[in-house]
Amino acid sequence: MTDGHTGIRSTRSATRGGAGVRGGTAGGHVGPSSTGLSPTEPAIVTPPSAGSASTASPSAGPAAVTPPSTGSALAGAGRPLPRARGPITAWLFDRLARPPHRFDPPPLPGPARPVNGAAAVDVPPAADPAPLLDEDLQLALFACYELHYQGFDGVDERWEWNPSLLETRGILEARFEEGLARAVPRPSAGPELSAVPRSTAPKPPVAPVPSAGPKPSTAPKSSAVPVPSAGPAAWMRRALTELVAADDGPALSAYLQREADLEQFREFVVHRSIYHLKEADPHTWAIPRLRGQAKAALVEIQTDEYGGGRAERMHAELFRVTMRRLGLDDSYGAYLDRVPAVTLAISNTMSLFGLHRRHRGALLGHLAAFEMTSSLPNRRYGRGLRRLGGDEAACSFYDEHVQADAVHEQIAAHDMCGGFAAAHPELAGDVLYGAACALALDRLFATHVLACWRRGATSLREHGGGEVTSGPGR
Asked: Of 109, 230, 356, 420, which residue has the fewest beta carbons closer than 10 angstroms?
């Protein structure tokens, strides 16, 4: 995926790691004053053995601290609305703080604006990521989507299906989809891919919305995909494999394995907590929209993601253990004010695909890309955390994905996406587009994080978030 196969689970997998909160070790990149992350308890990290390249600082706390009971980890969300990042979120949050009511959606201001250092991301001129890096737009969309997940304290639950809010969300989504279309080229890695229909070209759900630059052209649909003699499942698996292999993003997982200090690793985990604390939920939206082989394969994957019926084995719960062992606040949404737009865009893409039936093919492709780029990055994350003194409990999340996703990769590409392409050949292009979006966003995220670290800065937002401490309140 994005890491030269550092992997998309970078999106999901990378989405599984963290970065530091103490004085830098390897290279002393980012100190506590720059990240503003405060441990909620002594970090679990066991000091590395003598001679290790990295040495845990005394502030990391005693070795092998027993994590809190799973009872506290399973507590509800209990987070208020985040701080506004611009005129859209200020306007939106003012309304959400009141009882549900009708209102006219706001006009979107001018071109989307990358902020908080995101402009440092190096992308080709033809691939315009501006809406993906717009702090105000991404947070507003994230807040709208979150009403379909855990919601916010103080926000009436009836807002979830309020017609005025849904209309507003549609306008935000139109801008977001236009941004994805400009930033994510259609797959064209060879004759097999070039034969795929382009049915997933963005279809804004509302009237045209002002945007930066010309609107992307919509390619004509094809009625079916020419399927080789090997069959649709084998064809789809090969097409996805070629797409993943062609990705050449920066190796964030390799950096975390060999060079990152503890603070940077904790910082990485903070980014990934936005998705991993609700891991698998966005893709589960596809289950009632599928039938046959594709549905059975997705349920098989999701069963593992949810721990096979054991709450403590749910991947979101394993990630909470990692956060606690790193001395981070593991409550749902604790770091929402600290993560930049590119991190929110990763989560928003999954919600966009998951909440719209028309994007069900893209959602499956997105999940397949996650699974196909997960095992190697997670192995690297585990090795990197152990290098920094992480114990078995801290690394269990990564270890689990090394094993599980090696199996999920085959199921996702062949059974799930292949089965879907066989049943809906006209939507095979959507599957590949969803995979391409996952890879591109993870690449954009990795580029942002590494660029910040290499210039000695934090990749988190330094303004508006303040110091993050323990406890459910802010």
From this structure: 230
Domain range enclosing 335: 8-46+78-454
Count the Cβ atoms, other than its own, within 10 Å of residue 256.
Answer: 30
SS (H, E, C) 107-136: CCCCCCCECCCHHHCCCCCCCCCHHHHEHH
In a domain, 287, yes or no: yes
Q: What is the pLDDT of residues 224-255, one digit of tens each?
A: 444 444 688 899 999 999 999 999 888 999 99
Which run of H or E residues covers position 284?
helix 281-284
Q: Give a yes or no: residue 467 inside a domain.
A: no
| Residue 54, in any domain of the structure | no
Burial of 109 (0-12, 13-18, 19+ CB in 10 A): middle
**Largest separation between any pair of C-alpha atoms in the chain:** 64
The CATH number for 196's domain is 1.20.910.10
Quote the number of domains for the chain: 1
Residue 360 covered by a domain: yes
Q: What end-to-end distance do the CA atoms of the chain give, in Å?
A: 35
| pLDDT digits 0-9 by tens, 3-37 | 544 333 333 333 333 333 333 333 333 333 345 67
